[in-house]
From TrEMBL:
<keyword id="KW-0326">Glycosidase</keyword>
<dbReference type="InterPro" id="IPR000334">
    <property type="entry name" value="Glyco_hydro_45"/>
</dbReference>
<dbReference type="GO" id="GO:0008810">
    <property type="term" value="F:cellulase activity"/>
</dbReference>
<keyword id="KW-0624">Polysaccharide degradation</keyword>
<protein>
    <recommendedName>
        <fullName>cellulase</fullName>
        <ecNumber>3.2.1.4</ecNumber>
    </recommendedName>
</protein>
<keyword id="KW-0732">Signal</keyword>
<keyword id="KW-0136">Cellulose degradation</keyword>
<feature type="domain" description="Glycosyl hydrolases family 45 active site">
    <location>
        <begin position="54"/>
        <end position="148"/>
    </location>
</feature>
<dbReference type="GO" id="GO:0030245">
    <property type="term" value="P:cellulose catabolic process"/>
</dbReference>
<dbReference type="Pfam" id="PF02015">
    <property type="entry name" value="Glyco_hydro_45"/>
</dbReference>
<keyword id="KW-0378">Hydrolase</keyword>
<comment type="similarity">
    <text>Belongs to the glycosyl hydrolase 45 (cellulase K) family.</text>
</comment>
<dbReference type="InterPro" id="IPR036908">
    <property type="entry name" value="RlpA-like_sf"/>
</dbReference>
<dbReference type="InterPro" id="IPR052288">
    <property type="entry name" value="GH45_Enzymes"/>
</dbReference>
<keyword id="KW-0119">Carbohydrate metabolism</keyword>
<feature type="signal peptide">
    <location>
        <begin position="1"/>
        <end position="22"/>
    </location>
</feature>
Length: 153
């Protein structure tokens, strides 16, 4: 559960969060190194890009994640999909999502989780509007501070 003001990392292509085998979450120091490297590559001055406002959502529906389809903006490779057990990794990235009647689902390792070393930090795969196109966010990692606004649920 996220507490008010709790930092929240949202990963739009889970490959940044998953270990090299796509099934195991790396240590928090490994994850932080990946985040720092991404920021150095994306930001002209090597610092975090500051953006205010915007919309994003996080959910867990067990469907194949969008970044698991070939042809997306791949950091290393498409994100993995799993069989309905959530553990058995599928090799064919063209397998239809379970939400469309197919047999590809999100892997258990892609579930949102709270950092074991910092309980005020959470990680999740997220979604956001694609007004700028998918290439603007697939494979990206964002640090998000949520605001407690009136009427927000």
């Amino acid at each position: 559960m996220r507490l008010p003001g709790q930092p929240f990392f949202m990963l739009f292509a889970s490959v940044l969060l998953l270990g090299a085998d796509g099934l195991h979450v790396p240590s928090s120091s490994s994850t932080q190194r990946q985040i720092d490297e991404y920021n150095r590559r994306q930001s002209p001055d090597g610092q975090h890009c500051e953006v205010t406002g915007g919309q994003a959502t996080q959910y867990w529906d067990c469907c194949k994640v969008g970044a698991a389809w070939p042809g997306k903006n791949v950091v290393v490779r498409p994100a993995h999909s799993c069989a309905k057990d959530g553990v058995t990794r599928l090799e064919d990235s063209m397998t239809t999502s379970g939400s469309k009647g197919g047999s590809a689902f999100a892997c258990n390792s892609q579930q949102p989780f709270v950092s074991s070393s910092n309980p005020m930090l959470s990680y999740a795969v997220g979604a956001r509007p694609i007004a700028l196109g998918e290439d603007s966010f697939f494979g990206a990692c964002y640090s998000i501070q949520f605001q407690e606004l009136p009427g927000k649920t």
